[in-house]
C-alpha cells in the first residue's frame, strides 16, 4: 500500500505542477526524504498524510481511497474531480470517466 500511496501523491504533485523540492520545503524534509515517500520506501504516519493532503488540496481519505482503488496514476483524468467536491460524488464521477 505504501507504493500505491506514493504513486497517488506523485500524480497529484505533478498535476499541480509542484516540484519535489517544493513539496520537501513545505513538509520541512529533505528532497531525498520526500522522494522516498513517493517511491513508497517509508511508512507515513497520519500527521504526514494530512500534511500532504493539505498541500495537494485533497483529503487524506481521498489519497488512501485512490491508492486502494488503484486508479491509473499515469492518467490525470480523475484528479480534477478528486480535488473538487465530496469523496462519494467523486467516486461515481471518476468511475464513469475511467470506464
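Q: What amino acid sequence fits the structure above?
A:
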Amino acid at each position: 500500500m505504501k507504493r500505491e500511496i506514493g504513486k497517488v501523491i506523485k500524480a497529484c504533485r505533478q498535476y499541480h505542477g509542484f516540484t519535489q523540492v517544493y513539496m520537501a520545503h513545505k513538509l520541512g524534509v529533505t528532497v531525498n526524504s520526500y522522494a522516498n515517500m513517493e517511491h513508497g520506501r517509508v511508512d507515513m504516519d497520519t500527521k504526514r498524510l494530512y500534511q500532504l493532503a493539505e498541500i495537494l488540496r485533497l483529503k487524506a481519505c481521498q489519497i488512501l481511497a485512490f491508492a486502494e482503488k488503484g486508479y491509473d496514476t499515469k492518467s490525470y483524468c480523475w484528479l480534477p474531480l478528486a480535488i473538487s467536491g465530496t469523496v462519494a460524488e467523486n467516486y461515481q464521477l471518476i468511475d464513469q470517466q475511467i470506464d
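Q: And what stands out in the fold?
A: The radius of gyration is 13 Å.
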